[in-house]
Amino acid sequence: MIRTVTPADTPAVVALAVDAGLFTADDAGIVEQMMADHFTTGADEGHTCLVDEHDGQPVAVAYYQPRPATDRTWELTMIGVARDHHRHGLGARLLHAVETDLRARDQRLLLVETSATPAFAAARAFYLACGYHEEARVRDYYQAGDDMVLFRKALTAP
Questions:
Q1: How far is CA 19 from CA 33, 38, 40, 49, 136, in A?
Q2: Is residue 108 a contact partner of residue 71, using CB atoms and an 8 Å limit?
Q3: Could you report the per-residue pLDDT of 99-119, keeping only the tens digit for each?
Q4: Distance between CA atoms of 64 and 94, rounded to whole angstroms?
Q5: Terminal-to-terminal C-alpha distance of the chain
Q6: pTM of the full predicted structure?
Q7: Going from the N-terminus, what domains does the chain have, and what CATH number goes with each?
Q8: Fewer C-beta neighbours within 10 Å, C or N terminus of the chain?
Q9: pLDDT tens-digit map of 65-99
Q10: Are residues 101 and 48 in contact, defined by beta-carbon separation less than 8 angstroms?
Q11: Crossing angle, helix 121-129 and helix 90-104, to 10 degrees?
């Protein structure tokens, strides 16, 4: 069941983000802070976090937020599925829920950035399979030799 995240979900979301390989255990504090910010001011600023719950536990998470100084452009900040739930379509289902939510709010674009390294090849293939188009690459963005790939999907008809 896809639903809006609650504060009680925070420990599970942090563990999920680490399990999905989005963050290392050393960087789990980044996710904790993102969730704390979400519940204090982020939701008021339009930030949205959805989880896909199975057997009472979040097994997939998506976090998205409006891009400042743009006309209805959003950024998918985080999407991940617990490793033991991979290859069951949960990521695509959750991404579709994000897109449906944004379309219902008459939003225009959804952007996603990821790494160009081989470790993120599956993520890039996922976005392409979900109808995203590679829009840009920024060389050495994350660090020397690690380019950022920007994907784009129009949410409204041209």
A1: 17, 21, 25, 18, 28
A2: yes
A3: 999 999 999 999 999 999 999
A4: 12
A5: 32
A6: 0.92
A7: 2-154 (3.40.630.30)
A8: C
A9: 999 999 999 999 999 999 899 889 999 999 999 99
A10: yes
A11: 50
